[in-house]
Amino acid sequence: MPEKREVRLPDDVRLHVEVTGPADAEVTAILLHGWTLDGRAWHRQVADLTERFGARVRVVTYDARGHGRSSCMALRTATLAQLGDDLAAVVDEVSPTGPVVLVGHSMGGMTVMEYAHRHPEHFAARIAGLVFVSTTAEGHTHTVYGLSPRIARLIRIAETTGAGVLARCGSWRPPRALLRALQPSIRWMLFGDRCDPSDIRLVTSAAARASLRSIGGFRASIGDQHRLETLAALAHLPAAALVGDRDRLTPPPCAESIAAALPVTELTVCPGAGHMLMMERPDEVNGAVAGVLRRVLTGTADPTPAGPPVPA
């Protein structure tokens, strides 16, 4: 069973953290979830990494501020910049020594980039590998929801307006009955061809735990972020990027631009998969994370570009 901990941040926000593995493990893997989700999204990866590596790897998940079992926060701190600062604090708290591999899904991947941008020396001293899952370094540049650009612009306007309203609703949480009614829309937006009913239930449960302030408050920051230059400075690190070809939120061009900025990154495109790759394609995600961890454990790095995307 994972050890449950709490990390208290300088503004008194409390983060719910779960740790599996010994404190003296050779490498720590920190898994960061996406917008409106929580650390439970990684349950298949936690189980797989624990079985593969045993005591050699410590696995950490945590709920971002305003999400899951972490506490709510002031609206002004609902930004990716703050999440980057929070990640730096989590690294210091749960893994004060030794190499760290960061695995970020969607907003979690953007959090990793923000940490690298805002704390470059801290990042360089601690981070040994990266895995980006269904994320982007270019905000909403490529997001068209699988629709025509004109319709996508209208949806984005409505979404941005609605996010502003939700952000002012404080620590209230969305009604579960409403989320259950929206499950068909959630399934269409987040998943590709295949979807296990238990995954829809988990996603809905996570959204029900996120405060309306966090659901609405982070939207502007997520849409505006551009961190390709930051990524280019990390090209020496072992890395992997994965995306589903049915991803309506961070489609393949998002992962392709990340791979272009990190030329030794192995880019995997999963046919028929949507935005929730760690649930839809756990074997591919597990393999990518394990591959980066092995390179860190053995001290090796792929010196040649990964080439064209690898179909999963």
TrEMBL record:
InterPro entries: AB_hydrolase_1, AB_hydrolase_fold, AB_hydrolase_sf, Epox_hydrolase-like. Coiled coil: none annotated. One of its GO terms (cellular component) is membrane. It comes from the Bacteria. One of its GO terms (molecular function) is catalytic activity. Residues 30-286 form the AB hydrolase-1 domain. This is Pimeloyl-ACP methyl ester carboxylesterase.
